[in-house]
Amino acid sequence: MKSINLKIEENLLLTPAQTMETVLEAIKEVIPYELAVILSKEENDHLKVRYASGPLKSEKLMQFEIELNKRPDISAALKAGEVRLIEDTDEPDHHDTYEGVLDLPLGHSCMLAPLKVNDETLGLMTLDHRECDIFTSQRVKITETLSQIVALALAQSLATDKLLDINEALVYERNNIIGEDNEVFAGMIGRSKKWLQVVERIKLVAPTGSHVMILGETGTGKELTANAVHRLSQRATAPFIALNCSALNSSLAESELFGHEKGAFTGAFSARKGRFELANNGTLFLDEIGDLPLDIQPKLLRAIQEGTFERVGGEKIISSDVRIICATHVNLEERVAQGKFREDLYYRLNVFPIVLPPLRERIEDIGLLASFFLERISKKFGNRHFYLSDTAMKMLNAHEWNGNIRELQNTLERAAIMSKSGLIRHEFILFESEYSGKNSVSATGDITAPGSAAGVEIGKFDDEMKQVIKLALAKCGGKIYGNNGAAALLGLKPTTLQSKMKKLGIK
């Protein structure tokens, strides 16, 4: 048999369409055909055209289906499970395979090759040529061998299509849950009872103008929630201004909140509006309010109560009508008891609390969230389509998600970097918890304890982590720091990434 040379790049994973195209082109090197067609056996007892190759291929052909109850000749070929030549015959049940679609000359050559895996008939491969008797007995024998390879490729294709159908169903369900507020709640995905309660509370408080306190762990979507409240409010056309209070010292916090006049302090070369002034008639979102310096809290309380303030270094009273939405991941009642947060400010802000559940308490939302993030990652990576294998999905559902939604997003982006075909397999799902020795998931989808033979081996994980870091560095042009750096892409602190690079020998 003439050798079949498939030029496939090392480690390249082909899509189902690319795989079938490559296989059909390879078959042409040993079996001359003018039309090769792969049909899958559907639940309605039809054969559906999936892939085709050759000069006789047409758009009409790609829409063609064969009703097996009307084609006893093809049904018999499938049942026999052997390659058959279908040429001139006087049998009353005989028809051209693609009658009504292709007008082939009398006496043309046609070969039917059933596609079976483990005694299950998956479909049929047909080879046609306008020349008579071109399919010799030797070529029939070769086709019997090749049909086994094609059957395996078709099985992979059907499995992948099933995953894509599941993904599309998740997208549809996600959009259906969000409903008419699709644009407002973009990114706020979920069907769990706890998450739907959050959405209802957002809709309840948004039109009122009351101050809102958003409580939740880091990475649960506090700023998205604040933005949704704003966009559903009567202030939606006015500014939404955000300020992260974390790591602000007293002087910087006051300047950021209320602005400053020219010459108010060293480096104040011009007057600058603060967030209160910028948010006039709109919403001011104060993230990590629990970290606001204690000596600034009375000034914030006064601004909220009276709607007035002065810039740093100024004497002019400035009025601003602002709705306050604040968020924190700490227990403010404990901070009040410890004397680290003013009680009067706490009660002024905590008019209507919204508690965001951690991702580990809304496991049923992970599939929808993964679908949403993979859709966004697809656009970021040049519209490449990404989808999860069953085992990869099991790994996501089994993980603790201490970093919540942000960790999920970063995990999926790391996996997408490693996937060349778009299929995200279980070995591409890399968690920090695996590196630290916590429970992991084996290749079969079973949860395993540290040290288990089926668990993730540390050496293997190091190799995979090394590959991920190298890919991230290449994508970011070797840059580590900044929003466009490899550390941000991997969801790590730059110093943590540098430490891992040193440990893994990455220069």
Mean of all residue-level pLDDT scores? 83
- The helix content is 40-55%
The first-level CATH class name of the largest domain: Alpha Beta
* Relevant CATH superfamily of the largest domain: P-loop containing nucleotide triphosphate hydrolases
Rounded Rg:
31 Å
Task: Summarize the model shown.
It is built from 18 helices and 19 strands.
Provide a descriptive summary of the structure in words.
It is a single chain. The protein has 507 residues and is α/β, with parallel strands linked by helices. It has four domains: 148 residues, GAF domain (Beta-Lactamase), CATH 3.30.450; 163 residues, Rossmann fold (3-Layer(aba) Sandwich); 74 residues, Helicase, Ruva Protein, domain 3, CATH 1.10.8; 43 residues. The protein contains 18 helices and 19 strands. Strands 3-2-1-6-5-4 form a six-stranded antiparallel β-sheet. Strand 18 and strand 19 form a beta hairpin. Helix 4 packs across helix 12 and helix 12 crosses helix 14. The longest helix has 42 residues. The radius of gyration is 31 Å and the shape is elongated. The N terminus is likely disordered.
Question: Which helices and strands occur, and which strands form pairs?
Answer:
Elements: H1 16-28, E1 35-41, E2 46-53, H2 59-62, E3 65-67, H3 72-80, E4 84-85, E5 109-117, E6 120-129, H4 137-178, H5 193-205, E7 212-215, H6 222-231, E8 240-244, H7 250-258, E9 259-260, E10 272-273, H8 275-278, E11 283-287, H9 297-306, E12 308-309, E13 318-319, E14 323-328, H10 332-337, H11 343-349, E15 352-355, H12 366-380, E16 387-388, H13 390-398, H14 404-418, E17 423-424, H15 432-435, E18 440-441, E19 447-448, H16 458-475, H17 486-490, H18 494-504
Parallel strand pairs: 7-14, 7-15, 8-11, 11-14, 16-17
Antiparallel strand pairs: 1-2, 1-6, 2-3, 4-5, 5-6, 9-10, 12-13, 18-19
